[in-house]
Amino acid sequence: MIDRFLLYSLEHRKKIVLMVMDEKGIRRINATVTAIGDEAVEYITARSDKKQTVMHDDILSASYARGDDGDTLKNEEDEQDG
Question: Structure pTM?
Fold first, then answer.
């Protein structure tokens, strides 16, 4: 299921929420995925356009960002209208 959210963020350039376990403990990250590799995920945050990396094994969960319902068809219609 995590992979589906990662692909959603990558393909639609949408922010998602990642729960990550690393040396700092469990963290919540609002991220936009820029690349997905075999072992790691590259992302940027709203605070920094600097690309950061997290290992797949360190991602505990993923979900839609606040206010996003994941309806990509609605988003495509809005882009065509505007």
Answer: 0.83
